[in-house]
């Protein structure tokens, strides 16, 4: 029977560093309810945290957080993944600002019912859907209009 692996100091140090990095990323995620890209989160980590963390590690941690349902993920119109801390359970849709990432959560009961109907009609199981709306929020619209007024 093989002996159990002993925890080496190097492995312990790496595990602790990962935990520190995860906590730092959670802190940054907790500062805003907006969806942000891994690059945006990485840039904020570099400015505000004392923990050194590479972009690859940010992606890896975000992937793990998504699997554990710690974060909500969102696809931007260009396909880029965006993240924010999960604030509620259940299925929701979002109205997302293209400029700042602000997201308004909403439910759409007719779509949920129709999805169930289509699944039953075609005898499918475990059917999911993804519906999000994109636009410009009032704050960004005011900023855009304000800049236009100065340029004209």
Q: Could you name the CATH homologous superfamily of the largest domain?
A: Winged helix-like DNA-binding domain superfamily/Winged helix DNA-binding domain
Strands of the widest sheet, in order across it, are: 1-3-2
For this structure, the CATH topology of the largest domain is Arc Repressor Mutant, subunit A
Decide which structural class fits the backbone. alpha+beta
**End-to-end C-alpha gap:** 79 Å
Rg is 20 Å
Number of helices: 5
CATH class of the largest domain: Mainly Alpha
Largest sheet: 3 strands, antiparallel
Description of the structure:
Belongs to the Fur family. GO terms for molecular function: DNA-binding transcription factor activity; transcription cis-regulatory region binding; zinc ion binding. Fe cation binds at residues 112, 129. Its cofactor is Mn(2+); Fe(2+); Zn(2+). Homodimer. The chain is of the alpha+beta class and 152 residues long. The chain folds into 2 domains: 1-87, Arc Repressor Mutant, subunit A, CATH 1.10.10; 88-152, Dna Ligase, domain 1, CATH 3.30.1490.190. Helices cover 48% and strands 16% of the residues. It has 5 helices and 6 strands, in the order αβααββββαβα. It has helices spanning 9-30, 38-48, 55-67, 109-121, 138-151, and strands at 36-37, 71-75, 81-85, 93-97, 103-106, 132-135. The chain has a 3-stranded antiparallel β-sheet. A 3-stranded mixed β-sheet has the order 5-4-6, with no helix packed on it. Strand 4 and strand 5 (103-106) form a beta hairpin. The chain is globular. It starts with 8 loop residues before the first helix and ends with a helix. Mean pLDDT is 82; it is low at 148-152.
């Amino acid at each position: 029977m093989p002996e159990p692996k002993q925890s080496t100091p190097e492995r312990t140090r790496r595990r602790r560093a990962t935990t520190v990095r995860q906590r730092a990323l959670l802190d940054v995620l907790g500062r805003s309810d907006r969806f942000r890209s891994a690059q945006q989160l990485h840039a904020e980590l570099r400015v505000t945290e004392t923990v050194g963390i590479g972009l690859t590690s940010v992606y890896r941690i975000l992937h793990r957080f998504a699997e554990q349902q710690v974060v909500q993920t969102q696809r931007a119109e260009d396909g880029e993944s965006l993240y924010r801390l999960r604030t509620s359970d259940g299925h929701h849709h979002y109205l997302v600002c293209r400029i700042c990432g602000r997201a308004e959560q909403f439910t759409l009961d007719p779509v949920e019912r129709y999805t169930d109907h289509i699944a039953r009609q075609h005898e499918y199981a475990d059917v999911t859907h993804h519906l999000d709306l994109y636009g410009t929020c009032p704050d960004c619209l005011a900023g855009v209009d304000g800049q236009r007024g100065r340029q004209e």
